[in-house]
Structure formats: structure tokens, C-alpha cells
What we know:
The chain is of the alpha/beta class. The chain is built from 8 helices and 9 strands. The protein has a 5-stranded mixed beta sheet with strand order 3-7-6-4-5, with helices on both faces. It has a two-stranded antiparallel sheet with strand order 1-2. It has a two-stranded antiparallel ribbon with strand order 8-9. Strand 4, helix 4 (134-145) and strand 5 (148-152) form a beta-alpha-beta unit. Helix 2 runs antiparallel to helix 3. The termini are far apart.
Amino acid sequence: xxxxxVIFTGDFFIYPRRAIFDLESALKNxxxxxxxxxxxxxxxxxxxxxxxxxxxxxxxxxxVIKCQEKLEYKKHGIPLKYYNDIFIxxxxxxxxxxxxxxxxxxxxxxxxxxxxxxxxxxxxxxxxICGKCSTGEISELLDNEGIRSATITSYEHLExxxxxxxxxxxxxxxxxxxxxxxxKHKKDFERIGLSGILINIDNSTCYDLGKExxxxxxxxxGFTELKIPLIKKILKIYNHDNLTCSHSKRWIS
Length: 253
């Protein structure tokens, strides 16, 4: 429980410029015991010889704490390579990056770009589970576990689907999207207010290719892969008592 190295990166400004490097040095090789990291950052801010501007103290504290919270993924057996592929939707009653086993995944949202470009189900609901893409394996798994599923075909469809789920009494969902999409729409997820967990996808996404406008309207022609091992692990964490169902409840929106 020693914080060996901290590196702050991203699109932000800070003055004086060296302050961020001094903070990284102050955190290096420090104890990660409860509250110690936050205390170091606050003491650093309050005692720094010049006023730090451009990024707030609270944002820095939150960034480090949320990184530390991800360490509890280890107790669930999630490999380190997946730590940055898990995005927890923050809502009024959920302000942590920790995985909670007290909730059950009730619905699963699949991206249309994870279906083959020439698939007849690319822009509509359903899957014939032909085995040619990762969507088929996950769709079959969801059917067997009795988890409702839907293919999201545009951003408007995503908003409508999340609102419908919330209105119908669903309390927790899971879905797949790229990191860039999550970052861009993080506040939208929070605004809708449905708790959930998102899992990153593989391959070149619409954001990587500069095709986000096409994807927004459901016209992205690229192809992505779902992280099947991570999805299975997340399903087990949340639905470990419901992994076998006598019937399936395929949900079409």
C-alpha cells in the first residue's frame, strides 16, 4: 500500500507550471492508508509558496482517490490490464469507482458498431448468433442469464433507452462503449441518473478515425470488438447468484 509513482496527464492548465511536478514528487513513495493521500495533496496546496491556479484542489484530490479506488478490482480477480476499461456511472447515490456486488445488472446495452458492417442486424435489434462477431457470444450469454439486452443504434436511441429503463424501474445497467464516448458523454449519463457500469471496446473506434458525427447518427461503418473476458467477469461480480436461469428474457427496444 505504497504509492510508488503519480503522473498527472490530460488537457488542463496549471500555474505555476512546475507545481504539478512538485505535487507528483510529494506523493511519490507515500502511504496509501485511509486519508493520507488526500491530506498530502491538501497540505501541498495550502503550503505551496505561490498560489496555484488553473486546476482546483478538489479535482486533483478526486483524480487520485478514484485511481486508488480501482485497486479494489484486484479482490474481484480482474487483471490489471482491464483497470482502465471499466467506467462507473456516477449518480446521486453512487459517487465511487468501486464495484458493488449489492447491485444486479438488469439490462445490457450493446453498440451497433460491434456487429459486422454487412450484418442484417447492424442497425436494428436482435442477433442470429452466427459466431462471426463478439456480439453473438455476448448475446447468447445474456439470454442464458436472463438479462435484457438492446443494440444502441444512435446517441438519441441511447438517451431514450436509458430513460425508458429508469422509468420502468431498472436500477442498474451495463453497457459497452469506447473511452472517448464515455468521456464526452459522462455528464449526460449522470444527468439521466441511471446507475450503471460501462466497459471499453477494442479496435479503432469512430473517435480514433474522426467519424464521431457519423456514429452519433448511427452511420459509422467501422467494426469494433467487445472485451468478452472482462464482460464475463463483470457479469459474474454483479450477477453471481443469477448465472443460471430457466428462461431467457430477451428485451427489444
